[in-house]
Amino acid sequence: MTADNLIPFPPSPQGPLGTEREPAPLVLDGELLPDDESTALVARRLGPEGLRARVAVLVRGVAHAPQIGQLRAVAGYRLRQAPRDVTRLGWFFLRGHGRWITKGWTWATHGDLRADARAARLAGDQEARRTAQETIRADAHARWSKIGRALHRTLAGGLLVTFLAGVLALIDAQVPRADMWPWLASVYTVIDALAVMGVWVLKAAPLGWLVAAIWEGRDKTPGASWLVRPCREDADSWIDERMISQALAHLGISPLDRFFKNGGELTYTVPARVDGEGTFAQIRLPMGATADMVAAKRTTLAANLGRAALETWPTQGEEAGLLDLWIADKGKLGGGAGPWPLLHEGTVDVFQGVPIGKTQRGQVIYGHFFERNWIVGGRPGQGKTALVRILLLGAALDPTAELWVFVIAQNTDFKPFAPRLTRYQVGMGPDVAAAAVQALADLFAEMERRGKLLATLPGSPPATSRRLADKPAHGLHPLICVISECHELFGHPTHGEQAEKLAISVIKQGRKFGITLILDTQSPTATSIPKEVTRNTSCGVAFSVADHIANDGLLGSGKYRAGIRATDLRMHTDRGTSVMVGVSDATFELVRGFYVPYSDGVDMVTPVVTRAMTTIDQLRRTGGPTPGDDDQDDEAEQVDHLANIQAALRGERRVRTQVVLTRLAELNPAVYEGWTFQDLSAALADYDIEPVKSGGVKVVRATDVTHALAYRDRLHDTEGDG
What we know:
Layout: H1 35-46, H2 48-63, H3 66-80, H4 82-108, H5 111-123, H6 126-174, H7 182-216, H8 241-249, H9 254-261, E1 267-274, E2 278-284, H10 291-296, H11 298-304, E3 312-316, E4 322-328, E5 354-358, E6 364-367, E7 374-377, H12 384-396, E8 402-407, E9 423-426, H13 430-456, H14 466-469, E10 479-484, H15 486-490, H16 496-509, E11 515-521, H17 531-536, E12 539-542, H18 548-555, E13 577-581, E14 589-593, E15 598-599, E16 602-603, H19 605-622, H20 630-637, H21 641-649, E17 654-656, H22 657-667, H23 669-672, H24 677-685, E18 692-694, E19 697-701, H25 702-721
Parallel strand pairs: 7-11, 7-12, 8-9, 8-10, 10-11
Antiparallel strand pairs: 1-2, 2-4, 3-4, 5-6, 5-14, 12-13, 13-14, 15-16, 17-19, 18-19
Helix pairs in contact: 4-7, 5-6, 13-16, 21-22, 21-25
């Protein structure tokens, strides 16, 4: 092959044998217009024709806008309903006059007082009847007296106005406006303006009369309305204030019945609005009615709204008289939440939480670990173990988290987690229960160690944090302990009492130290779960449960009465759906959990655990923070501040405090990085040493540190001999 038969591919801007070739000029396809034609074209574009074309484009754009389309739909609907609307308005007009006549007759004949007298007569109460009759006579006398005074004043005022009008008319007829005093001319100007306004008022009076009569004759049925929204695709799911008011009016609650019977109209502090996959409204209930009363009638309310009980959630708002009502769209709660977002990729920061499912509003809900403890329960096979696995999988994807699992049963629910777990025990024997109790005792000791360590850190932070957890020397990494089937542990004849005491202590005090306890049970009874455990647990999760005792045992006392009920969740039908409290700012959340398959032949848990272990191995190779390193804990416990300060002095007689702090940070950055003068002073004060001033600066004297070390050594020797 020679250079002559080489064919460049793709063609390049080079000649044969690599010689440079000029790039081809850019070809523009167009037509040059003479100046007169170009000017004419510009004139057409800027002239009336161009303006009309641009206006036409704008009009077409507006006409095809979604808002205009909705407006056309509403206008068309109202046009089609015009005969019906006119008929209803005519009926309202006639009924309004009838109501005015009825009110006038009732007023003129003292109808309300006569009704009281009639009721007293039927009841045989002569005293009440006599009082009512005397009230009628007194009211009639007072009324005629007022009418007489009003007629007298009207007559006197009419005569005065007539006299003044005659005088002004006479003056206006005899004296030109230009010759009048200025103030008198202004009076006539005002009179003319009032006359013009009077004409318009007289013309508008019939319209006002018509509107007033229609308003008086309107349908006063609770929530009644006749201007309804036209054709919707989700017509079956449409909920508005009218429907809610009608549903509440037929609950059979006495205070509400009286309120609606007297023509009352509910106040909606939050009008019905779309909220996720449903509708939310907040109602101010009338006096005598509470949200608990409505929650107790939840099944009836759901039927009145055309919903299942699971789709209707009346709960108490910020006050007893505020009703928070959320109604799901039909069929929306039947679907699952979809695949877990972290199933194939991603890591987790346990301080930020783990996605565990979707709320009734269609929003992803996160399960948090920091400053949280969990209790999860429900009837067998409803999803409690799947939820705990999701929480544990999320925690496993945080390489700094340490995980313990104790299963007081014989199953393999958490077997795929074994490579990632620091402690793992399974079984129904006493050895597993003893190991779980020992774990709780170790958590209590770890909690105490972390509390003491935090007190020695710069600034004495009140709780652990992401920054502290990332420093292995401190040993403040997240520590998460799962006890599955915890009712077996708390009910154990030998270890139950001790387990209860330790669990309550860890739940109460371990939150701020990065220690999280997760309990799950399928037997949430009054005796199987200690009340103090439920009362102090941050996050309660209830899948389908059998009764209110199990409901409140998981979610907290009084939740069933407040309308937060997992008893309405149906076995099998609502598998994977749970009621949660404490997971968000809302009073409760109805959550459809994400599902990671783990069953016969399908295991999506193990790949996630493998991914977590790969991340940890990579961090260990690069020296990053990883969980469960006991040497790191020992290092944190063995920090000797006094000896380190002596090393930082480097044999000098006195050293400035700023220099000491710098050398300490160089000596042990994990502990001393970020220390301030106050931290150094506090460490020295433990040995009665105080920085002194020398040459205008604060210094640490070597003799003070040496004497303190010698005294401490002698003290330890004495204790050892004793």
